[in-house]
Specification:
Strand 4 and strand 5 form a beta hairpin. By secondary structure, the protein is mainly β. It contains no helices and 11 strands. The strands form 2 sheets. Strands 2, 4, 5, 6, 9, 10 and 11 form a 7-stranded mixed sheet that branches. It has a 4-stranded antiparallel sheet with strand order 1-3-8-7, with no helix packed on it.
């Protein structure tokens, strides 16, 4: 069982930046595939970025060049640095972990608005 806790969501102006964090419980974190997904109002949940245990990353086309996923295995934490935020990035952002099963966090709200 893995417990995930996201933080860092906030209200930010267009063009601004945020860094989301996801702290994971358990000793298997360093082996896990970690990811960030988001659910925009009225839409289905979509992939934002993933990072493997050997630091291979993958991004949705809509965030390439603006968002960066990273991980700190010593802290059992995965991060999502978001730059040049746009109103269409407004969503609930969810952390995902796959290690011997899939686990989701509760989500953190990001609102991009002037």
């Amino acid at each position: 069982q893995v417990h995930l806790v996201e933080s860092g969501g906030d209200l930010v102006q267009p063009g601004g930046s945020l860094r989301l964090s996801c702290a994971a419980s358990g000793s298997a974190f360093r082996f896990a595939l970690m990811g960030w997904y988001r659910q925009c109002p009225g839409k289905e949940r979509e992939l934002v970025a993933t990072i493997t245990s050997i630091i291979q990353t993958n991004y949705a086309d809509s965030v390439k060049g603006r968002f960066t996923i990273s991980r700190d295995n010593a802290k059992n934490t995965v991060y999502l640095k978001m730059n040049s935020l746009k109103p269409e990035d407004t969503a609930v952002y969810y952390c995902y972990c796959y290690v011997l099963g899939g686990y989701w966090g509760q989500g953190t709200h990001v609102t991009v608005s002037s």
